[in-house]
Amino acid sequence: MKKLLQVDFDFAGPFGEEMSNALVGLAKSINNEPGFIWKVWTENQAGQVAGGIYLFEDEASAKSYLAMHTARLKEMGVKEVRGQIFDVNTPLSIINNAPIA
Fold first, then answer.
1. Tens digits of per-residue pLDDT, 13-58?
2. Which SUPFAM superfamilies does this UniProt record tie to the protein (predicted)?
3. Sheet order of strands, 49-56 included
């Protein structure tokens, strides 16, 4: 069953175009993670928060990625990473145009 991973953390920047330019390599590397399907990058400059919403093929892949990404973010100076894994209700999500079919 596909799993949605929600991650967020306090982040002082960069944001917007500067973030896009700085993290191209990281974004490309995520495509190679086992079980990875897609990611939506999230950022809130006013709230100083960043993160993402990911879709993985299964729970094991989502858990493995969360552990690896948490360690990577902590190496970058992030103190607390908040991550939650959710089941995806595919029939209802398809009604609302989710790209998961």
1. 999 999 999 999 999 999 999 999 999 999 999 999 999 999 999 9
2. Dimeric alpha+beta barrel
3. 36-44, 49-56, 3-10, 81-87
Q: Where do the domains of the chain lie?
A: 3-95
For the segment 55-69, what is each residue's pLDDT rounded down to a tens digit?
A: 999 999 999 999 999
**Closest listed residue to residue 56, CA positions, set 30, 82, 74, 78:** 30
pTM: predicted TM-score of the whole model, two decimal places? 0.91
Residue type, 7: V
Residue 56: exposure state from Cβ atoms within 10 A (0-12, 13-18, ≥19):
buried
Distance CA 94, CA 41 (A): 21
CA distance 87 to 14: 31
| Residue entry with tokens 């939650």 | 84
